[in-house]
Amino acid sequence: MLWRAMRESGFVPTLSEGVRHLPGFLDRAAQEALVEAVRAVVREAPLFVPVMPRTGKEMSVRMTNCGSLGWVTDKERGYRYQEVHPITGKPWPAIPESLLALWADTAGYPAPPQACLVNFYTETARMGVHQDRDEDEFAAPVVSVSLGDSCLFRIGGTRRGDKTVSVKLQSGDVVVMGGAGRLAYHGVDRIYPGTSTLLRSPGRINLTLRRVTKPGSDAAT
Ligand code: SIN
Ligand code: FE2
Q1: CATH number of domain containing 174
Q2: Closest Cα to atom 6, ligand 1: which residue?
Q3: Residue 182 three-state SS
Q4: Quick check: CB of 71 below 6 Å from ligand 1?
Q5: CB-ligand 1 contact for 69 (6 Å cutoff)
Q6: Can you give the pLDDT at residue 23?
Q7: Global pTM?
Q8: Through-space distance between the first and last CA atoms of the chain, rounded to whole angstroms
Q9: How close is the Cα of 187 to the center of ligand 1, in Å?
Q10: How far is the CA of 208 from the centre of ligand 1 (A)?
Q11: Quick one: DSSP state of residue 48?
């Protein structure tokens, strides 16, 4: 309620430098089309259970990817990008055109994204505070899209102890972390079940677009 009142009054919390929150970037029709595209991705590349390096602890989100590279993690080999799905061994499906267009509109970066991580949050899932730093190219921003139930997103500075700001992300919102905000610590503290009618069941989908290699480098596409 407080958040709604604040939003309706036009209040926009100050996020870290280089971090932009674009509320309502995608309208309902665009969100519905994107959910269909995500379903097609999940049919080809099933959701898997990500596991923390070393400890082997399961994360609470379920994941898959599209793009030439996908972000994966397991106990033995840790966080990394790879060209194939960890279970099917098949290449990831292509990034939907609408997401490539969204990147072109928001990233301010001359090359396309290579990876689109699909995170699925059930009502109780969360994402601990972390930096996105498994890429070789930090000149490109991280662009993320929220679909389905709202969440409480927390973002701080580039040091773990920096002050953080919490912002509620709703379906259709986009967050761009670039420049001085590219390595900002961030996480998802909670999902608010029942706040969206977009998905068939409670939960949230987050799509994270990233450039992994520098354009012109060997693995670049
Ligand atoms: C992530 O940082 O990987 C996910 C962020 C989000 O779900 O909004
Ligand atoms: Fe992240």
Answers
A1: 2.60.120.590
A2: 206
A3: coil
A4: no
A5: no
A6: 96
A7: 0.93
A8: 45
A9: 6
A10: 7
A11: B
